[in-house]
Each structure stands twice: as C-alpha cells, then as structure tokens.
Amino acid sequence: MAALAAVSVGTASKALNGRGSMRPETRQRVREAAERLGFRASAAARSLQAGRTYTVGMITTDSIGRFSIPVMLGAEDSLGAGRMSVFLCDGRDDPIREQYYLDTLLSRRVDGIIVTGRRAQPRPPVRANLPVPVVYAFISSTDPDDCSVLVDEADGATKAVEHLLAIGRRRIAHVSGPEHHQSAATRCTTAAGRLAGAGLEFAAPPMFGEWSEAWGRHAAGTLLANGHDFDAVFCGSDQIARGVADGLRAAGRRVPDDVALVGFDNWDVMAMACQPPLTSVDMDLEGVGRAAADMLLAAINGQPAPGRHYRPCRLVARESTAVTVRPAPGTAPAPPDRLAAQPRT
Amino acid sequence: MAALAAVSVGTASKALNGRGSMRPETRQRVREAAERLGFRASAAARSLQAGRTYTVGMITTDSIGRFSIPVMLGAEDSLGAGRMSVFLCDGRDDPIREQYYLDTLLSRRVDGIIVTGRRAQPRPPVRANLPVPVVYAFISSTDPDDCSVLVDEADGATKAVEHLLAIGRRRIAHVSGPEHHQSAATRCTTAAGRLAGAGLEFAAPPMFGEWSEAWGRHAAGTLLANGHDFDAVFCGSDQIARGVADGLRAAGRRVPDDVALVGFDNWDVMAMACQPPLTSVDMDLEGVGRAAADMLLAAINGQPAPGRHYRPCRLVARESTAVTVRPAPGTAPAPPDRLAAQPRT
DNA sequence: TTGAAAGCGCTAACAC
DNA sequence: GTGTTAGCGCTTTCAA
C-alpha cells in the first residue's frame, strides 16, 4: 500500500491519520491508494503500540434478558459514538462462565468493563483489583465504592402514588412480586411512605406474589373477594397490572372509572396491549446504559465517579388512569380502544 | 514476568502455551510466576503475529429486537464455546451506521461476520467482496449464494395446520399480520395449501392486519360478526392469537372447546399469559443463531456452506388446543389456570 | 533445554 | 516534506 503510493510507511501513516505536515498532493495520493486497495489500518497493531484498544466488555451476570437488553443497547449507543467497540458476554447466571469471560476480556485488554444484570439486588464485585475501570449498570456491587448506575425505584414508586393521588384516588391497593425481592420491597415501602405523607394508608394489606399476569388476575380476585374498598391499584410490574386489569374486568369493574391502575417497567408491548392501555413507571433503562457508558468513558479518561448513582424514573400516563375528576356514577367515558372487540361492559 | 521466573520471553511463551519441550520444573516455575503476576498474554500482540483475531462481528441490520436477540444469544453461545469473542453492533436500521460498523469490524480484523435482523424479507448483501466470511442469520441476503440460516416458516405453518387437523378441527380460520409481509404471506399460503391437501379450505377468507393483540381482538369480533363457522384459528403471531383469545372469550366462545387456537413465535410471556395458555410454533431462534455460528466457524476454517439453509420449526402444544376428541357439548373441561380469577364462562 | 532474534503492522521520534 | 528506525508484546525459528 505504501508501495503503491510510492511513499514510506511512516508517511502513509501520517497521511491517513492527518498527522504531521506534508504536501497535500502526497496526502491525496496516499489516500487514493488506500481507497483503491481497501486498506484499513489493523486495530491490533495500532492498539499494541497505543496501549489502548478502544474496546470495552459488557458482561451480564445472569442471562441477557428483558432488563439487561435496553441497558446494553443504551451503552452500546454511547460507546459506539465514541468509536469504541463492545464485546458481548452472556454470563448465563454461571459464575464460572463469568470469570472465564472476565479473563478473556482482560487478555483482550479492554479499556473498561460494564456489568449488568436482571435484578436490582446488589451482587459481589465481579473481581477485586481489576486493572481496568468497571461500571455496574442497573445492578449494583455490594461494595458501595464501586461505580454503579441505578434506577431510583423509590422515585418511581413515589411518582406512581402521586399520580394516583393527583387524579383523586385515595383508596390505593398494592399488588407486587415476591416479598423478598428488593424491588418489590422498595416500591412497597416507598409507596406506603408517600401515602402516609398524605395521611393515608394502603386500602388493603400489600399483596406479594410472582411477577406474572396470572398472579395479577388472582390478586384482583382476592381483593374483591375480601371486600376491600379500593379505587386504584399500584402494581409492581406491568404484567401484574395487566393481570389485575383482566381480573377486574372479568368481575365487572371498570378501569379506570372504578379502579385506576399504574404499572411498573413501561414494557411497551404489555402496557399497550392492556385494556385499557396502562399507565406505567418507566425506568429509562437505555438512559441507565448510556449513563453507565459515559461514566466508564470518564473513568477510562482518568475521571472516575465512584459510588452509587441513582437516576429518576418517569411516569408515562395512559388510559388506565385517564380520569382527572371522577365522573358522576353512570357517566362512563367512551371505551378507549377502537380496534378492540367490545368487552361486555 | 519472564524476568520473575528468570527465563527468556521465548521460554515463557512456550511454557504457558504448552508448546515445545522443556524441563517440567521450568514450566511450573513460569506458570507460577504468571499466576502470581496475573499475567495474561495480550490478544492484540498474539493476533498481530497469528493473523487471526478469534473475534467475530455480529451486526443487526435493523435495531436489535425481539427476534434478533435469541439469534444473537445462540450465536454467542456457540462462538464462546470456541473461544471467540463477539463484537456487538446495532445497526439501528441505518445503512450509514451499518457500513460504519462494517468498516470498524474490518479494521479490527474479525475472522467473520454474522448479520441478523428482524424480518425474513431478503436484504441486499451487506457489502460485496468482503475479505471475511459472512453468514446471514434469520434474515437472508438477496444473493442466493450468500450463506444464510433461515427458519422454514412453511414447515411451521404446516405443523400448525396438521396439529389442528389432528385434534379434529376442520373449519380453520386464519388471522395474520400485514399482507405484504413475507412471513404473513408464506404462512398463509402454506396453511392454505396444506388444507387443500386435506380437501379443505379456510373457513373464512384469511385476515391480514397488524402484528398486535388489538388486531387479534378486532379480527375475532369480525369473524363472529360475519357469521363464519369456524372451530379453530391459526394465527400469524402469538400476540394476534392472544387478541383473538380475548376477543372470543369476550363474545362467550370457549377456547379450546369451541375454538382451538395456534399462535406463531412461541413467545413465552405471551403464550403463557394467554388464557388458556397458547399452543404455538417455535422457530428455535437460538438454534438458528447457533447454526449460523457453526457455519461461520466452518467457513473460517475453509469449509464454507454457501446458499440458504432452512431449519424446521417445532410445535409446542398447550391448552389452547388441548382437546383430542371434541367433548359432547356441555362437557366443558376444568379451566386450566388455577391462579386466574375465573372468567365468567 | 534454553536463549536470541526476527517479524507481525503500526505510530512516533528523529534524521535527512 | 519525507524516509528511517525503534518498539509495542507476542510466537517461532534457529543457534547454542
């Protein structure tokens, strides 16, 4: 390639990288030769001498799933803009596999590592004394000094409750996932606290179960069967909320007229397919990924930001809470979903 | 590191790679020194001299989505086992971005490239005359000589229809996605053909719409309103099927007793949350990814397998078709979902 | 059995 | 303005 343009390799390098000063015509000639040959500088050779690979590793501790994907996409987005390439590593919930990936990444001399996963529960650091910066995204490390970018779930729960209060609901129930699950606990406690701040409490004891529609349906049935008087349900997930919606409708309750509903996750396909479309708390997982990537880049450039960083949630209002003032009984608004076969009403 | 073990770099290299012959004690000494120092050979240096990076690129032509993810995971799985690392590139439906990624991958000297995406529709080759092997996974290239691993959707449709026939249904309707969408067309045509083979035809003209629950609900309503006589619906997707299920139930039809339902995709969360749980066609996307990775590895090793390779589907039977012999009217089996609030029946 | 040296492809420092 | 050279970290060949 240098030969084709009849210059030395050094000159060719400078020409292609816009470094040094040289006759414009030479630069042009080199560029054309490179173009003609489809020449592309070898990243390996380059990083060998630069001591930097412009490469980062992304490890999921558990399998890649619904939550880690948006995080990864956000990170990839931010990283790609900075011309960094991303190594994908699916930990598959297997510590051995995880450590193997870590070794691989280290021998590939990645400039940094992003660790992500499914649950908010803190996990032990991926390894002590790593020679490169690590940022935890969505999950956190048990070491509070490790850099992690987290969702402020308390903020999400607060916004959910405040939204329900704002549309005039006062008798709010809560249906969520497993009680021992940190997200369920945080959301419940925070919601209760916010209610207390308004001089209220849950309209029924909070109900814990699975993160599934089936559980939501079941819980709705139980709430009704136990004769609780409630005009809203704050649900721990969109799937649960959707189950609750179906359960309520099957029992003849109208959403949002009789009972308003707020979910959590803002999982588009769930929230939109719900009847009626579901108001939900969005954790902005892509934003989490992007923020994590930005912090990693900063750390790589010598500006680390140790500690836990919480990001706010955003409430996305849809028709499951679309009542500003409670209508007089009997004044039911038109059903929202034009395409839907009419529910029995 | 060589210094710590008091050997030359050449010896150290041999010791660590198990190459050459040497005093076992020396080998041991080197290994311990390496261990102590956390030494890991630089992949960059290694591939510089080997001319091979043990790295492949994975590009999605459109955004990374529900279909490409399992494909990617399957590929990553197969590749990881072969100690290859994977570069993740999200094309975001942007040709510029895609070409940029391609350049990056090429300059990183990946050993091969996997291209994947959302739709079955063939796409133009990602670039002509690439210096490394390329395998298309789930999508195919318009050039029939390019290696692509594809889902045999006709097989899936056939299995769906045969399953319905096997449980004694004869009046089968079809509700699917957009008519111009290749998957919708293939599935419909094949199903019609298989019915014809049994001397039957669709119980109603096939209905095309969106890949959404709302459309499914709507279509169910229309089918009923038009007075069609049908005892099964083969749906183009799980979401549509779920909408149909809801639409039928809202109109008082029982699934599977009155109408059996088969979906497509076997999207667990949809299929399981459906009432009743949905029988569906599984495209084994992870298998597609694994197969693509295996073919890429073979091509890298000089054994290319040009052309389109189709993989069969698998039917996953659940309760939406759980009737072997049609029960006498009135002999309704117990509702399947113990957790669910009872639908009105 | 071990060491020395060349060379993979590139960039940066320096000489011409 | 351009060419030469050293050296990034490794493997491999060949000599000792």
TrEMBL record, chains A, B:
Gene3D superfamilies: 3.40.50.2300, lambda repressor-like DNA-binding domains. Coiled coil: none annotated. The keyword Ligase does not apply. GO terms for molecular function: DNA-binding transcription factor activity; transcription cis-regulatory region binding. Signal peptide: none annotated. Residues 324-345 are annotated as: Disordered. Residues 1-50 form the HTH lacI-type domain. Keywords: DNA-binding, Transcription, Transcription regulation. This is LacI family transcriptional regulator. It comes from Plantactinospora soyae.
